[in-house]
């Protein structure tokens, strides 16, 4: 609302409900308050209250804040992109073997595996991802072991004043 006489504070975008907000919803909902009245109390959207009531309802018209909180935490644990490191461990072990035993670069390992059909396209991670794994220390290859990476000057250059 852009009205100067509005008595509600603006809702902060991206703010998640806490357990005490959920207990407030539980108490007001059990007293028979509407979604809009509960939303005014919590300073959030009525649809947020409706979604929360749907999420935490365990039986007909019975909302429990603890159930809503546990469902919220379950959904939050499953969100986000999952790493390919554990799912592509056979290919990463192959790259590590070729690097240490044959002296190949990471890019050569990827190219050879795809060209000879040792691994399918969906079983291979990109060269950039392999270098990121080396930077993060997830592989047994260190940055000092990569000759081209050591040669490059990665320092930032400053303009003279």
Task: Note poorly predicted spans.
Answer: none
Mean pLDDT: 84
Q: Which strands sit side by side, in order, in the main sheet? A: 1-2
Topology as H/E string?
HHHEEHHHHH
What share of residues are in beta strands? under 5%
- Distance between the terminal alpha carbons, to the nearest Å? 49 Å
Report Rg: 27 Å
Outline the biggest β-sheet. 2 strands, antiparallel
Secondary structural class: mainly alpha
Count of individual beta strands: 2
What level of helicity do the residues show? Answer: 40-55%
Tell me the overall shape: elongated
Task: Count helical runs.
Answer: 8
* Total tally of structural domains: 2
How does the SSE layout of this entry go?
Blueprint: H1 19-30, H2 35-42, H3 46-56, E1 57-59, E2 62-63, H4 65-77, H5 89-102, H6 106-115, H7 127-136, H8 147-151
Antiparallel strand pairs: 1-2
Helix pairs in contact: 1-4, 2-3, 3-4
Produce a short descriptive summary:
This protein is mainly alpha-helical and 161 residues long.
Note down, in words, how this protein is organized.
This protein has 161 residues and is mainly alpha-helical. The chain has two domains: 19-77; 89-147, no CATH class. The chain is 52% helix and 3% strand. It is built from eight helices and two strands; from the N terminus they run αααββααααα. It has a two-stranded antiparallel ribbon. Strand 1 and strand 2 (62-63) form a beta hairpin. Helix 1 packs antiparallel against helix 4 (65-77), helix 2 packs across helix 3 (46-56) and helix 3 crosses helix 4 (65-77). The chain is elongated. The relative contact order is 0.08. The model has no long low-confidence stretch (mean pLDDT 84).
């Amino acid at each position: 609302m852009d009205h100067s006489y509005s008595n509600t504070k603006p809702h902060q975008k991206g703010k998640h409900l806490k357990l005490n907000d959920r207990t407030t919803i539980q108490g007001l909902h059990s007293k028979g308050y509407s979604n809009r009245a509960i939303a005014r109390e919590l300073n959030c959207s009525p649809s947020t209250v409706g979604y929360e009531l749907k999420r935490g309802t365990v039986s007909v018209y019975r909302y429990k804040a603890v159930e809503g909180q546990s469902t919220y935490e379950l959904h939050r644990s499953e969100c986000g992109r999952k790493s390919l490191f554990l799912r592509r461990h056979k290919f990463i072990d192959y790259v590590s073997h070729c690097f240490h035993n044959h002296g190949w670069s990471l890019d050569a390992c990827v190219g050879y595996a795809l060209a000879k059909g040792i691994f399918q396209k969906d079983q291979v991670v990109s060269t950039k991802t392999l270098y990121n794994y080396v930077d993060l220390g997830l592989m047994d290859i260190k940055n000092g072991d990569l000759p081209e990476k050591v040669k490059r000057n990665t320092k930032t250059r400053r303009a003279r004043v």
